[in-house]
Write a structure and sequence with these properties.
The protein has one domain. The radius of gyration is 16 Å and the shape is globular. It is mainly α.
Length: about 70
Amino acid sequence: MKLGDPLLTLRPPRTCIVCGSPHKGDFKIPNDVWITVIPTEYQNKVVCVECFGTFACEKQIELFRVHRPL
C-alpha cells in the first residue's frame, strides 16, 4: 500500500443535517424504525444518534425497554 490508495484515503466526516455535529452519525437502525422516527425531509440524510433520539421522544416512541427480573 502506498499513500493515495483507496484504503488509506480518509473520507470527510459525516455531519448531522439537523445539528451539524460531525460525531455520533455511525449507528444502525432498521429501515422501518428510521422511516417512523425521522421526518421525511431528513430521511435520506445523515442524522446523529442524539437527534434521532430527540425525534423519537417528540413522537413519544419508546426505543428501549429494560426488562427487570421479578
